Amino acid sequence: MTQSTAVRSSGQIHDHVAVARDVVKSYGTGDSAVTALRGVSATFVRGQFTAIMGPSGSGKSTFLHCLAGLDTVTSGSVRIGDVEITRLSRTRLTRLRRDRLGFVFQSFNLLPMLTAEENIRLTGRLGGRRADQRWFDTVVDALGLRERLGHRPSELSGGQQQRVAVARALLTRPEVLFADEPTGNLDSAAGAEVLGFLRTAVDEYRQTVIMVTHDPAAAAHADRVLFLADGMIVRELPSPTIDDVAAVMTTVGPSPLERAGRRAED
Ligand SMILES: Nc1ncnc2c1ncn2[C@@H]1O[C@H](COP(=O)(O)OP(=O)(O)OP(=O)(O)O)[C@@H](O)[C@H]1O
């Protein structure tokens, strides 16, 4: 069942699986208030891999968290498929995240006492649903985890742990897979394996992926890169290459906070 919104443009039908409109996010009040997002709008279509980049403090993680319903917005709206998530109760939002979204974080977030297989099956079990065995096998084999299913996280390399986390996130066939620096703790070979699999998930299973990264090589696996600076989207780069991404990053530059920090150090 497709719960996204089909939109026809230029003779093509696009499924808008996530839409942010004028999202503003402020933390704190008064003198200590920080506005992390200043009116961010973006549309994410099914089967597209988007990387979000920008200087430290530009609002990347805040944007990802607002899109994924992990954080509330101060104003503006976020739609996942046909559901306006900024209006949902806490319980319904938790259920929507569990049933319709997948998450991969920099620090793998696996449960240490469970085996790889138990970790992978965990999200589906929490939702009271049994994962389809064929899909479980497809994901496990594509991620090269077959021989590791009985191992606990402490017995796995960082790359293997992150592949378990990716398998867990994909097992429920989420409408969107959100990844926050998924390769941040991995060496470049292990990172490339994880990114290669995310690419395969997009190309072969029409998975939608939204990933925050600092790494131009990681962003080059995406179909497009959105660049944030000072809480706003300032550039969009389609079909990115590593060189293109690195070149835009030099123009996007550090945030005012970083500049202020550097001035203080001078
Ligand atoms: N919980 C919070 N309370 C107060 N300020 C916050 C909070 N979370 C983020 N911020 C501020 O919001 C701004 C954006 O932070 P965010 O973590 O989204 O940036 P980022 O681009 O992901 O940075 P990095 O690349 O360093 O992870 C920063 O100025 C940050 O200090």
TrEMBL record:
Keywords: ATP-binding, Nucleotide-binding, Transport. InterPro entries: AAA+_ATPase, ABC_transporter-like_ATP-bd, ABC_transporter-like_CS, ABC_transpr_LolD-like, MacB-like_ATP-bd, P-loop_NTPase. GO terms for molecular function: ATP binding; ATP hydrolysis activity; transmembrane transporter activity. Residues 18-255 form the ABC transporter domain. Transmembrane segments: none annotated. The keyword Cytoplasm does not apply. GO terms for cellular component: membrane protein complex; plasma membrane. SUPFAM superfamilies: P-loop containing nucleoside triphosphate hydrolases. The keyword Transport applies. It comes from the Bacteria. This is Putative ABC transport system ATP-binding protein.
